[in-house]
Amino acid sequence: MAAHRRQVPEVRRGRIVMGLRRRCGRTLPPPSGRPGRGRSLAPKHPPRYLHFCCPSLTCPSFPCLPCNKHVKVKRDRGSMSNKAPASQEFLDTNQYSRKSILRYERIFGHTWVSTGGEATSKDLLIKMGLRPGMRVLDVGCGTGGSAFYMARHYGVHVHGVDLSTNMIDIAKDRLNREEKYLQSMIKFEVGDITKVQYDNASYDIIYSRDTILHIPNKEDLYRTLQAWLKPGGKLFVTDYCRGDQEHSQEFLDYVKRRGYDLRTVKAYGKVLEEAGFKDVQAVDMTPTFISVLQNELKYFEPTRDAFIQDYSEKDYKEIVDGWRQKLVRCSAGDQAWGMFLATR
Ligand SMILES: C[S@@+](CC[C@H](N)C(=O)[O-])C[C@H]1O[C@@H](n2cnc3c(N)ncnc32)[C@H](O)[C@@H]1O
User: Fold this and answer.
1) Which residues form the signal peptide (predicted)?
2) How far apart are CA 15 and CA 276, in angstroms?
3) Residues 195, 198: Cα–Cα separation, whole Å
4) Which end of the chain is more exposed for a tag (fewer CB within 10 A), N or C?
5) Among 88, 211, 217, 289, which residue has the most ligand 1 atoms within 8 Å of its CB, making it the best to mutate?
6) Is the same domain home to 333 and 185?
7) Domain endpoint, select from 31, 54, 76
8) Are 327 and 263 in contact (CB under 8 A)?
């Protein structure tokens, strides 16, 4: 057992630091002096650690003592990060190609690319205290559903920013077809929210729907968003999150493929507090997410024939399977959906 407590390098946030050697699977011998109590451990590394085998032995990793496998351990601090933010090219050619966006809108609803489309947003927007004339920043505005809804129903001015040129092209096309008064209240812009610069204390509300999952450095982003809000201004965000447990390989692969950075709802709330927000509310909305997904499927499935005429059987299957997988991931506790409210 003494060997277990030797100091060995451990990879933490990209730096090598000295830490205790961690156990891996396999049965450990009984601790000396305590006969007969061998500890049978499931073949996995300790909870709250992600582990990867290192095939080359060149990366900063170390052999696990009991099984002698070479492993690299990384402390899980409530985040699952892919480190680099999704690039414009990655978004425009993968998840948000023009075809994918229009296909998503067939299940989310026209001008919506997020959970529950207009119905969900209508319910959530009631919480924001919007008043005519307010200035709203919509971070990752997509094809503009929220901007159109807020400007039309609450008389606010909306500045929508999105990294995907496909999203903004579609949003602008739609805006051009709207009445003149609406056109004067909404502005859409292509921009990476981690790079754009806006004036401090210039927005009454900063709003974002299912977007910040694409951004790993949430800490810096939320500090910036806090500064852009007027004193007393409000932040309102919904975002994909993850459950507080060890994750299935399927879920880890999904997050990696998509390039998401997911936090637990609790850890996410802490990020907001540490960014300087007050009155932070971090609400686990996974049950609502599940019922919205079920509802979306219920209304989408009967449109199969019309959908296939415009797209294909394969596209239909991808959507339906994608929604079913989200349901499985949520029920298994891997995936979660959070709502965050805070004040500057
Ligand atoms: C799931 S969609 C949600 C769109 C919209 N909020 C809605 O409710 O329909 C996520 C959006 O985030 C945008 N996005 C991702 N990374 C971004 C970044 N760094 N800056 C601005 N927008 C980003 C994507 O292009 C995409 O439009």
Assistant:
1) none
2) 27
3) 10
4) N
5) 211
6) yes
7) 76
8) no
